[in-house]
């Protein structure tokens, strides 16, 4: 058997809010909410002083203000956050070339053969966190495990400013009592569906055969079967393929589904322009799937998608399909929407797409 990988998931602590507190001493020790003011704004980040009041990222800013009236609201400055993120990634690169960024404030690192020559992945994580603090005055948490799935769970275990290790021999014991909601991708709706089957912990999930889970949940059922056993073969990759190009907008006032056409066509134009810019790169890729994203007035998010036989060939075709996808929304006509987005996904290499067309284009 090959030796287990040594994976670290590094997650900065309340990153945007921590940068603001670092750069403005008046904010230190106070509840800080990073968000634009306004009825349509959502929270980008909340400091640890704001969290005991129930303030969390992605919640409406107005709700955050009600929960914590004394919170100090700061408009986000993503140019500054990106600059700090580059500093942090430069620290990662001193230890490994296998770095997979997930966002500005978190990344996977494969340190199986670390460049720094430290004796263990645990020591490497400690060194990375210490250097981040020394050079940026910010704290980070880390999870160390034999795969990405476990490392991500572990990084949240001793937050903030801590780390947690799951060794290969500890995987089963660690996972068995864990709430299934801790599995990435298992949200509230999925938790409810699993609870109806008597599944509330990962140990409960492990008692269900793969075939039964796949029959009920499709491919995701097979994935759940593997994760319940701590199996995750995904490699850390610093060559992330393009997954989606999209544009979205939040309205000043909630709109009906019928009233969204003009906005859908406008956003389709922005998405198509970005797609054409990507098509001019050295390794062009073809998008095969059109995605319509909607968020209702009560913050329910839904998506509808279509993969036609031939990928869209123009902005107008993209817009027409995105508008038509409204027909797949099965909500009452009285439903109002606060956000709409248009995206392209299902990317394949342009060369392989042409080959497929040559092989099957003339088929009856």
UniProtKB/TrEMBL annotation:
Keyword Magnesium belongs to the record: yes
GO biological process: DNA repair; DNA-templated DNA replication; error-prone translesion synthesis; SOS response
Domain of life, source organism: Bacteria
A GO CC term attached to the entry: cytosol
Reaction catalysis annotation: DNA(n) + a 2'-deoxyribonucleoside 5'-triphosphate = DNA(n+1) + diphosphate
Enzyme class per UniProt: transferase
A GO term, aspect molecular function: DNA-directed DNA polymerase activity
Short name of one Pfam family: IMS_HHH_1
Cofactor: how bound: Binds 2 magnesium ions per subunit.
Binding site for Mg(2+): 11, 105
Location of the protein in the cell: Cytoplasm
Cross-referenced InterPro entries: DNA/RNA_pol_sf (IPR043502), DNA_pol_Y-fam_lit_finger_sf (IPR036775), DNA_pol_Y-fam_little_finger (IPR017961), DNA_polymerase-Y (IPR050116), DNApol_IV (IPR022880), IMS_HHH_1 (IPR053848), Rev_trsase/Diguanyl_cyclase (IPR043128), UmuC (IPR001126)
Keyword entries, A-Z: Cytoplasm, DNA damage, DNA repair, DNA replication, DNA-binding, DNA-directed DNA polymerase, Magnesium, Metal-binding, Mutator protein, Nucleotidyltransferase, Transferase
Catalytic-site annotation from UniProt: 106
Residue(s) at site: Substrate discrimination: 16
Its EC number(s): 2.7.7.7
UmuC domain mapped to chain residues: 7-187
Required cofactor(s): Mg(2+)
Assembly and binders: Monomer.
PANTHER family xrefs: DNA POLYMERASE KAPPA, DNA REPAIR POLYMERASE UMUC / TRANSFERASE FAMILY MEMBER
Function description: Poorly processive, error-prone DNA polymerase involved in untargeted mutagenesis. Copies undamaged DNA at stalled replication forks, which arise in vivo from mismatched or misaligned primer ends. These misaligned primers can be extended by PolIV. Exhibits no 3'-5' exonuclease (proofreading) activity. May be involved in translesional synthesis, in conjunction with the beta clamp from PolIII.
Homology family: Belongs to the DNA polymerase type-Y family.
Record's protein name: DNA polymerase IV
